Amino acid sequence: MTDTQVIQPSTAETSIELLSVQQALNRALADELAADPRVLIFGEDVGTLGGVFRVTDGLQARFGKERVFDTPLAEAGILGTAVGLAIAGFKPVPEVQFDGFSYPAFDQIVSQVARYRYRSRGRMTMPITLRVPSYGGIRAPELHGESTETFWAHVAGLKVVSPSNAHDAYHLLRAAIQDPDPVIFMEPKSRYWQKSEVDVANSGGTSGAKIVRPGKHLTIISWGAMLGRAVQAAEAAAEDGVEIEVVDLRWLSPIDTQTIVESVGRTRRAVVVHEAARTAGLGAEVSARITEHCFDTLRAPVERVTGYDVPTPSGPLEDEQIPSVHRILLGVQKVLEYRRG
Hints:
globular, disordered N terminus
């Protein structure tokens, strides 16, 4: 089986399959299309080509051009179409081809998608799931490796989710499509080809954050593409006897404050990791919530390890922008060595 082949529902006795993130997303879309005739998938090159990253590969051939179709290169038009379809009773799953291409659709997302339920006093839902291949890590050109989560998480009326592995990619995408509210689904493009076990029959829970590695000395909170590096940093620290707990935020809006606070309450130290620029990044919100709830028990200020306050660079320069395992460990060391006074 190739990485781009559409995944058919399994008939085997076991529900656990080894899938890449790309395959898991493809499988989730296929299962939702099969389960609900109101689901429609559309965007730039998602039909015949199967998407730039082949996430929609084979879906048009299986479900037809009326349910999986290509659009013009017009992101505002794609989201405007999604709004109209949602009003008509469909469940649109549009794709914006790259994160930086979402900017032309900003007005539609903020002024229409996020507000329509509020504007109609709850009479009209917006069950739109906007898929956005996100973040850097593939050395792509300008506007092909952005971290846009802060924009969307700041907008009331939008939900924002970002999986870090194939299992969560499958179940979180299905949960997003079934949600009556609009969801920005940020897919870590650098993780598309990472394989892991997916239990298609058991989600293990799709709400809130998830502790992916227990520890007692410090908590790292991260999401999406950076989660893998956070785990690598924790594994490296363990060689020196430092046990780091790693929390995968998963839902960037609403934020699962309880899981974060419970973890930091145990470890009393925290580092937040993301590749977006530092100033007003989502890490600042997470840090504020930790400080508000854990101030009396924190043994050090919350440390943020982030991208720099510069436009996201293209090509090999992004290696300097995206936090490395080394930079994460330096942040961990700073927190562990902190002494009051």
